[in-house]
Specification:
The complex is a heterotrimer of chains A (286), B (250) and C (262). Chain A is of the alpha+beta class. Helix content of chain A is 18%, strand content 25%. In chain A, strands 7, 8, 9, 10, 11 and 12 form a 6-stranded antiparallel beta sheet that branches. Chain A has a 4-stranded mixed beta sheet with strand order 1-5-6-2, with no helix packed on it. With 250 residues, chain B is an alpha+beta fold. In chain B, helix 1 links the parallel strand 4 and strand 5. Chain B has a 5-stranded mixed beta sheet. In chain B, strands 6, 7, 8, 9 and 10 form a 5-stranded antiparallel beta sheet that branches. Chain B has a single domain, classed as 2-Layer Sandwich (Ribosomal Protein S5, domain 2), CATH 3.30.230.70. Chain C has one domain: Ribosomal Protein S5, domain 2 (2-Layer Sandwich). In chain C, strand 1 and strand 2 form a beta hairpin. The two termini of chain C are 27 Å apart. Classes of the chains: A alpha+beta (286), B alpha+beta (250), C alpha+beta (262). Chains in contact: A-B, A-C, B-C. At the A-B interface, helix 1 and helix 4 of A face strand 3 and helix 4 of B.
Chain lengths: 286, 250, 262
C-alpha cells in the first residue's frame, strides 16, 4: 500500500507484512515446531506443552517477545484501519453489503456514507456492482466487519478498473518506500490506488492500464522470486514509448476525481504489540 | 469394481515377498504432489499416487451457503469428495452416491479436528476433491491433496494431514494397497495422521485382522504417513520456497 | 482469484477496451488463446483428453459399455454426453444437482457430436435390437477461466478420436479396436462486447458479454450446430461473418484435437 512512501516502520499482524530488513526468512509450514526459545506464540502460531508450532504456511518472523508467522497465501484477513476496495453485493434498507475479498461480506451502514440516505433508498446511491474504497473500522468476535466510507480518499470509484492480486503480494506491489508502485506510475502514467485486500484500482489510458496490469501480474505470479524488481523495471522500460508518460489519461469526470485516491491514505501508526495482534490471546491452544 | 472377464485371483505375493507390482510389503507406490495448479481456487493441489489422479481445491473462508449451516462460533468445514464418471473401470453415474457422501463426511471431520475453525466464525471453508482416476486409496489421496490445498489457501491448522491405507494381502500386512490387492485382499485400513500429536483423525477398517495384525498395521500406517508427510511438505516448499519479502534484495 | 462479484467498472473497462480494438489479456478480437491437448490423460477411460485453453482446464473421458439399443433405433448405438461443472472449478459454481449452465454445455457439445455424425452410431450396434455399444462422453471442468463450451467440445472430441473399443474385454471380439471417428466437429465461441465481437472469451469477458454465439463446424466446412446464449443479440450479417471466422479457427482446433498442441 502506498503509505510505504512515508513510513518504513510499521508492524502488522496476520494478513499483512511490513517491509522487513533485506534478509532471507525461513519458510515454515503448519505443524512445524518453531525455533526461538523464550518467545511467546504470536499470530500464525500455536503452543502445545512448552513448544510453539506454525499454524499457517508463511515466513517465520520473530518479533520479541513474540514469535509470529507471516502468511504467504490465502484470502484477505481484515484488520482495523486497513483501506480496502469493495464491491457492492446487496442493498438493504439501511446498509450495503460489500465484498471486500474477506471471509465475510462487510456491511457499510448509511451513517458511514457521505450521503443523507433515506431508509430504503440505499440503491439511489450505490448499486450492486459499484466499487468503493472504504476503511475497516471494527472487527467483532462474530466475524462481522464494520467499514466506513467517511475519510480522506474514501468513496465510490468511477472509471478505470480493478486488478486483483494475492493479498500477500501487496507489500511487493508497494515496494520499499513505495518504490514499486512509484516506478509503475512513472513509467505508465497510470493512477493507482492499492487496497490492502489485494484489489488495486488502476485509472488512465487503456495503454497505461494494460501496462500496469501486466506489471501487477508479474508481481502476483513472481512475487516470491528473486530479481522481481529488475524484471518489472525491464518490462516497463521495454514498453516505454514517448507518448506513454505524461498526462495522456482517459477523461475522468471531474466531480469524481477527488474521490479517486492516487494513494490510499496511510494506516494509523500503531504500537508494535497491538499491531502484531500477537498477544497470548491470539494464539490457539490445541 | 472388478473388470469384466477373468475373475481369477492373481498372485498377490511372491515367495520372495514381492507384491503384484514388485513392491515390498512396507513400500508405498510412487507419489507426486503439485501444490497450487488451479487458478480459480484459493488453494489447490494435484496428487498422482500410483495410478490414482486426484485434484483438490479449497475455497474460503467465505460466506456460508446454504445459510442455515452457518455456525456462530466457528467456520463450518464442508467437504465434497466426488468421483468422475470415467475414473473407474465401469462408468460411474455422475453425482454423489452413499459411499462418496460417507467419505466426504469423515474427511470433513478429519479436517475439523485440525483446522483452527474458531478464527473465522460464521464462515465456510469448502474442500472439494475430484477423483479423476481411481486405483484404490482414493480417500487417502484425496485427503492428502485437500490438506496441501488447505495449506496453499493459508488456512490455519495444527498440522498437515498425511494419510495412507494399510491392508492385508495373502495373509501379510501390507502398506498402500493398489486395486488388485484391495479387491482380492483380506483387509483394508485407511488412516490419517496428525504428525504433530501422533494421533489419528481418520480411521476406517474393513476385513479381517487379529489384534496383533491390527497393531502392526497401525505402526506400518504411521510410518507410511511420515514418508507422505515429507512429500506434502516438499510440494509446498517447491511452490513457496523462493519467497522473499517486500523491499528485499531484488 | 476471481471469487468477487463482478465490479461494474471492470466490465465497463472490458467494453471500453473492446471499443478501441483491445482485450484485457492483450489479444486481438480474433486471437484464440493457446490451446493444448493431452490425449490419454485418464487410464481408466477408454479414451480421454486433458485440454487447456489459456487458464481454462477441462478433462474428458469416454467409456464404452454394452447395452440395449433404444426400441425405436434397434440398429443404432447409444451416445450420451454429460458435462460436470463441479464447484472445485469456480467460485461461481455450487454443489448440488446440475445447473442450467452445465446442462447447456452438455447439450451443445452433444448436439455437435451427433449432428456432425462424428461417430457412425450404426457401427456401434453389435446385435440389432439386442446388443450395442453405449458410448459415454463425460466432461469434467477443473478450472473455469472462460469459454467452457469450446474447451468441453475439444476435450470430448479428442477423447473420442483417441478412444479404443474394449471389445476383447467385453468378449464380443478377438481384439480391441480404435473407435471409428468419421468427422471431427469443434465449437468456436464468440461474445459481443459493444460493436466488437471477440473469439474465445475469458471469464471476465463473459461477465461483460452482450450476447454469446457458439458455432460448431466440421472438417468438411459444414456448420453442424449453433447456440446463441447470454443476454444480447446478433444480426444475420454478424452470424454470416462469425461462421467464416469459426471455420478458420476450426482447422487449428481440429489439429489440436487430433494431436497435441495447436
Amino acid at each position: 500500500m502506498s503509505q510505504g512512501h512515508r513510513s518504513g516502520h510499521r508492524h502488522r499482524g496476520r494478513g499483512e507484512t511490513s517491509p522487513p530488513p533485506s534478509r532471507e526468512r525461513t519458510l515454515v509450514l503448519p505443524g512445524e515446531e518453531l525455533p526461538g526459545q523464550g518467545l511467546k506464540p504470536g499470530a500464525g502460531t500455536y503452543r502445545v506443552g512448552g513448544k510453539v508450532y506454525a499454524s499457517v504456511l508463511g515466513l517465520l518472523a520473530p518479533k520479541p517477545p513474540f514469535l509470529t508467522v507471516i502468511p504467504l497465501s490465502g484470502r484477505y484477513i481484515p484488520k482495523a484501519g486497513d483501506t480496502v476496495i469493495g464491491v457492492v453485493t446487496d442493498c438493504q434498507t439501511t446498509f450495503w453489503l460489500l465484498d471486500i475479498a474477506a471471509p465475510r461480506w462487510a456491511p457499510l451502514h448509511v451513517t458511514g456514507s457521505p450521503w443523507k440516505v433515506e431508509v430504503g433508498e440505499t440503491d439511489q446511491y450505490l448499486r450492486v456492482g459499484d466499487a468503493v474504497v472504504v476503511r475497516v473500522e471494527s472487527l467483532e468476535a462474530t466475524g462481522r466487519i464494520g467499514v466506513t466510507m467517511l475519510g480522506d480518499g474514501l468513496g465510490k470509484l468511477e472509471g478505470g478498473t480493478i486488478v486483483s492480486v494475492s493479498p500477500a503480494r501487496i507489500p511487493r506491489v508497494v515496494g520499499r518506500n513505495g518504490s514499486m508502485v512509484g516506478s509503475i506510475t512513472a513509467h505508465t502514467g497510470a493512477e493507482i490506488a492499492v487496497g490492502q485486500n489485494g484489489r488495486i484500482w488502476v485509472g488512465g489510458s487503456p495503454e497505461a492500464i494494460h501496462r500496469t496490469r501486466e506489471a501487477l501480474r508479474m508481481i502476483d505470479e513472481q512475487g516470491q522470486h528473486r530479481g522481481l524488481t529488475a524484471r518489472v523495471e525491464s518490462y516497463l522500460t521495454s514498453t516505454d514509448r514517448a507518448g506513454d508518460r505524461g498526462p495522456e489519461r482517459a477523461p475522468i469526470e471531474s466531480a469524481h476525481r477527488d474521490a479517486i485516491p492516487h494513494e490510499l491514505p496511510p494506516l494509523p501508526d500503531v504500537s508494535p504489540d497491538e499491531a502484531d495482534g500477537a498477544g497470548p490471546d491470539d494464539s490457539a491452544e490445541y | 469394481m472388478g473388470s469384466v472377464g477373468a475373475k481369477d485371483v492373481p498372485v498377490l505375493l511372491t515367495p520372495e515377498g514381492r507384491r503384484i507390482d514388485g513392491r515390498k510389503l512396507d513400500e508405498l507406490r510412487p507419489i507426486r504432489i503439485q501444490a497450487g495448479p488451479l487458478h480459480q481456487a484459493d488453494g489447490s493441489a494435484f496428487v498422482e499416487w500410483g495410478a490414482n489422479k486426484v485434484m483438490a481445491a479449497v475455497y474460503g473462508p467465505r460466506e456460508v451457503h446454504p445459510r442455515h449451516l452457518q455456525q456462530n462460533n466457528k467456520a463450518v468445514i464442508q467437504c465434497r469428495y466426488n468421483m468422475a464418471a470415467f475414473s473407474v473401470d465401469e462408468r460411474k453415474r455422475p453425482g454423489l452416491d452413499r459411499r462418496s457422501q460417507e467419505i466426504s463426511k469423515v474427511i470433513a471431520e478429519a479436517f475439523e479436528s485440525v483446522v483452527f475453525a474458531e478464527e473465522y466464525p460464521r464462515t465456510s471453508i469448502d474442500v472439494y476433491i475430484e477423483v479423476l482416476q481411481a486405483n484404490a486409496g482414493t480417500r487417502c489421496a484425496g485427503l492428502v491433496a485437500a490438506s496441501v490445498a488447505l495449506a496453499d489457501a493459508g488456512i490455519p491448522m495444527v498440522d498437515l494431514l498425511p494419510a495412507v491405507a494399510v491392508g492385508k494381502v495373502a495373509g501379510q500386512i501390507a502398506l498402500d494397497l493398489k486395486k488388485e490387492e484391495d479387491n482380492f485382499g483380506e483387509a483394508d485400513l485407511p488412516m490419517a495422521l496428525v504428525p504433530q500429536s501422533g494421533r489419528l483423525v481418520l480411521l476406517q477398517m474393513e476385513g479381517h485382522m487379529t489384534p496383533e495384525e491390527l497393531s502392526r498395521a497401525l505402526d506400518l500406517g504411521v510410518a507410511g504417513c511420515t514418508v507422505i508427510y515429507g512429500k506434502m511438505k516438499q510440494a509446498l516448499r517447491d511452490r513457496y520456497a523462493t519467497t522473499e519479502l517486500a523491499g528485499g534484495a531484488a | 482469484m476471481s471469487g468477487e462479484v463482478a465490479a461494474e467498472i471492470r466490465t465497463a473497462h472490458v467494453l471500453e477496451l473492446a471499443a478501441s480494438g483491445k482485450r484485457l489479456d492483450g489479444r486481438g478480437a480474433d486471437d484464440y488463446r493457446t490451446v493444448s491437448v493431452e490425449p490419454g490423460f485418464i487410464a481408466t477411460a477408454d479414451g480421454s483428453a486433458l485440454v487447456r485453453l489459456g487458464d481454462t482446464v477441462v478433462a474428458a473421458g469416454v467409456k464404452l459399455e454394452l447395452g440395449k439399443p433404444f426400441p425405436d433405433t434397434p440398429n443404432a448405438g447409444v451416445l450420451t454426453t454429460n458435462a460436470e461443472l463441479v464447484p472445485l472449478s469456480s467460485p461461481t459454481f455450487e454443489p448440488g444437482p446440475p445447473q442450467p449452465g452445465a446442462i447447456e454445455v452438455s447439450r451443445v457439445v452433444d448436439r455437435a457430436i451427433r449432428a456432425a455424425e462424428a461417430i457412425d452410431l450404426t457401427r456401434l450396434c453389435v446385435t440389432p435390437g439386442e446388443k450395442t455399444w453405449v458410448c459415454y462422453v463425460d466432461v469434467h471442468v477443473l478450472d473455469h477461466s472462460g469459454n467452457l463450451i469450446d474447451a468441453a467440445m475439444l476435450a470430448g472430441v479428442s477423447a473420442l478420436a483417441h478412444a479404443t473399443v474394449p471389445a476383447k474385454r467385453f468378449g464380443v471380439a478377438e481384439a480391441d479396436y480404435a473407435l471409428d471417428v468419421q468427422h471431427l466437429p469443434v465449437e468456436c465461441t464468440f461474445v459481443r462486447l459493444g460493436d466488437t465481437i471477440v473469439v474465445d472469451p475469458t471469464f471476465d469477458e463473459e461477465q461483460a458479454a452482450q450476447g454469446r454465439l457458439t458455432i460448431a463446424t466440421d472438417e468438411l466446412g459444414r456448420v453442424v450446430a449453433m447456440q446463441k446464449g447470454l443476454v444480447g443479440a446478433f444480426s444475420p450479417d454478424d452470424v454470416r461473418s462469425l461462421v467464416a471466422r469459426a471455420l478458420a479457427h476450426g482447422d487449428r482446433l481440429r489439429a489440436a484435437a487430433r494431436g497435441g498442441a495447436a
